Amino acid sequence: MRPILLIGAGRMGGALLRGWLKGGLGPVVAVEPHPSPVLKKLDGVAFVPGIGDIPKGRYRAGVVALKPQILKPEAAALKPVAATGILMLSIAAGVNTKFLHQAWGKEAHIVRAMPNTPGSIGCGITGVFAGPGAAAKDRKLAGNLLSALGETVWVEKESLIDAVTAVSGSGPAYVFALVETLADAGVKAGLAPDVAMRLARATVVGSGALLAVDPKPAADLRRDVTSPGGTTAAALDVLLARGGFPALLKKAVAAAKKRAKELGK
Question: Which residue, of 31, 59, 186, 254, is most buried by count of CB atoms within 10 Å of its CB?
Answer without folding.
Answer: 31
